[in-house]
Write a structure and sequence with these properties.
Elements: H1 3-18, H2 23-32, H3 39-54, H4 56-63, H5 68-78, H6 99-103, H7 110-114, H8 118-128, H9 132-139, E1 146-149, H10 156-165, E2 169-172, E3 179-184, H11 193-196, E4 200-202, H12 205-212, E5 222-224, H13 231-239, E6 245-247, H14 258-265, E7 269-271, E8 279-285, H15 299-303, H16 306-324, E9 327-337, H17 346-355, E10 360-367, E11 376-382
Parallel strand pairs: 5-6, 5-8, 6-7, 8-9
Antiparallel strand pairs: 1-3, 1-4, 2-3, 9-11, 10-11
Helix pairs in contact: 1-2, 1-3, 1-5, 4-5, 8-9, 12-13
Bound molecules: S-adenosylmethionine.
Length: about 375
């Protein structure tokens, strides 16, 4: 495909997304009908689409309309690419720009420029004050890929050597001890021996830093109360020299891949349908807005509603209350979100402490979404 044809493909997919289709589904629908597209074409089209979804508002304002065509035009303008080089009608690319299209569009302002719905931009400003623009900007950029070296399978040097031998570029990442930033050949990872053998796991560096900040020691009894795919359960098992870690999720189907991942990682993870306790440590990695990871899943910021945000707050409080009953005397209750909002973070802890006297805040971390990892929050309480 020519670069212009890739832009034309993205335009069609963005129109499907605007009509209500999920981005992944729209991409898949296009790919099925585009057998001529090679892997590089697919990756380039995907990048255009997700870049535009991250910048859904600003690209439409700059492009002058709420269409896929205008959004791609706006995106190219933002990227400093002369649209006429691609909107030429040649090579299966988009038709040349009309005079009206050339004249349309203006610079976005406020929430438009932040690429957030108005109500969320107000929340970011309220919580992050002079850092609000930096936070919003992070959501408008692509996320980097991070690996966790699984110390149950090898050490940092072994991982660096193994990845280098397979032509995968990495460098140590500052946010967590065993975090590596992928700097080249990311696509080879899934097929790499380092990954297949469990020497490295895909995990965001802030997610790793959360587990690193937990008071974990081999021999402790540990429950991951909202285990999901098990990223944190596996990282906790590594800190426990293999485990065991009890893993629970209200939706057990979410843990479907966990036994396979645990076997690959050499971790002892036990699925528990009805955890009883008492545990030395219970981690609640609760459902949240997902705001800290909006650059990976940018549709989240457009889909979230104030009602859902309120509902999430109620769910978070009830999980925290239930989990506190599973912690033994002197034990620790850890609360984590991949959210950047105080309502889901510190406010939840303040209200929990007001409802449940006797718990003191032992550790608190708030990681901003930036080049070193996603946005994440952790509070560790002890009684
Ligand atoms: C943020 S995800 C967990 C991610 C996971 N810990 C990881 O590191 O990969 C939140 C999980 O909480 C689960 N969940 C929702 N309500 C719950 C509840 N009341 N009790 C336990 N888990 C719940 C969801 O099914 C979801 O898998």
């Amino acid at each position: 495909m020519t670069p212009a044809a890739r832009v034309q493909a993205a335009i069609g997919i963005l129109d499907r997304i605007a009509a209500g289709e999920a981005a992944e589904k729209a991409l898949l629908g296009w790919a099925r009908g585009a057998r001529y597209a090679g892997s590089k074409d697919r990756a380039a089209v995907r990048d255009h689409v997700f870049d535009a979804v991250r910048r859904w508002r600003s690209t439409a304002v700059l492009g002058g309309a709420e269409t896929g065509r205008a959004r791609m035009l706006g995106l190219l303008r933002q990227q400093g690419i002369d649209p006429d080089t691609l909107f030429s009608g040649a090579g299966h690319g988009p038709a040349p720009l009309t005079q009206a299209e050339r004249a349309a569009g203006r610079d976005p302002a406020g929430a438009e420029a932040a690429d957030l719905p108005d109500w969320l931009w107000q929340k970011v400003v309220a919580d992050w004050a002079d850092k609000a623009e930096t936070v919003a900007d992070a959501f408008r950029s692509r996320a980097e890929t991070f690996l966790r070296v699984n110390t149950l399978r090898g050490d940092l040097d072994e991982a660096l050597r193994a990845l280098a031998e397979e032509g995968i570029g990495v460098e140590p990442a500052p946010r967590a001890r065993f975090a590596l930033r992928v700097t080249g050949n990311t696509r080879a990872l899934a097929r790499s021996e380092a990954y297949a053998s469990g020497l490295v796991e895909l995990q965001d560096a802030s997610s790793q830093a959360v587990v690193e900040a937990l008071p974990l020691h081999p021999g402790m009894t540990v429950l991951d109360q909202c285990a999901g795919g098990g990223g944190k359960a596996l990282a906790m098992a590594a800190r426990l020299n293999g485990g065991p870690v009890d893993a629970h999720d209200a939706d057990p189907a979410r843990m479907a891949d966990l036994p396979g991942r645990a076997a690959r990682a050499g971790a002892d993870i036990r699925m528990v349908a009805d955890p009883r306790g008492p545990y030395d440590l219970v981690l609640t990695d609760v459902p949240c807005s997902g705001s800290g990871a909006w650059r990976r899943a940018p549709e989240g910021k457009w889909r979230l509603t104030p009602d859902r945000f309120t509902e999430l707050g109620i769910i978070q409080a009830s999980i925290l209350d239930a989990a506190s009953g599973l912690v033994g005397r002197g034990g620790a209750l850890a609360y984590a979100t991949c959210s950047i909002f105080a309502a889901e973070n510190r406010d939840q802890i303040d209200r929990f402490q007001a409802r449940n006297p006797g718990w003191r805040l032992e550790t608190e971390r708030l990681f901003p979404p930036d080049q070193d990892g996603d946005g994440f929050y952790l509070a560790v309480l002890r009684r």
